[in-house]
Specification:
Order of helices and strands: HHH
Largest sheet: none
Number of helices: 3
Structural class: mainly alpha
Radius of gyration: 26 Å
Helix content: over 70%
Distance between the termini: 62 Å
Length: about 100
């Protein structure tokens, strides 16, 4: 539910208007504007377009999370490598 709220928070008036206009274009040939059938078709199409927009947003957010995790993993691996290298250098200088 948090994800959907985060998605809603990203929707600007401009984005919502674009979804409305796109939906209106998609149903204009099916029914006459101003009729109950048109209103129902428009509401249905807007719901579909909002869901598609949400799915796209989710996919983008998950891709960002994966990239972030990969970056953290690389940082961790680099840090561990540095520790190992320091340890090897300090052990090799023991003059056994």
């Amino acid at each position: 539910m948090k994800e959907f709220q985060a998605f809603k928070d990203t929707l600007s008036n401009k984005a919502l208007k674009a979804i409305y206009e796109e939906s209106k274009l998609e149903v204009q040939d099916e029914t006459t504007e101003g009729t109950e059938a048109f209103s129902l078709a428009l509401a249905t199409q807007m719901a579909i377009n909002l869901l598609e927009s949400y799915e796209k947003w989710l996919k983008e957010e998950r891709a960002k999370e994966i990239n972030k995790m990969k970056s953290l993993s690389k940082d961790r691996d680099f840090f561990l490598l540095r520790i190992k290298m320091k340890h090897c250098i300090s052990v090799s200088s023991w003059n056994l």
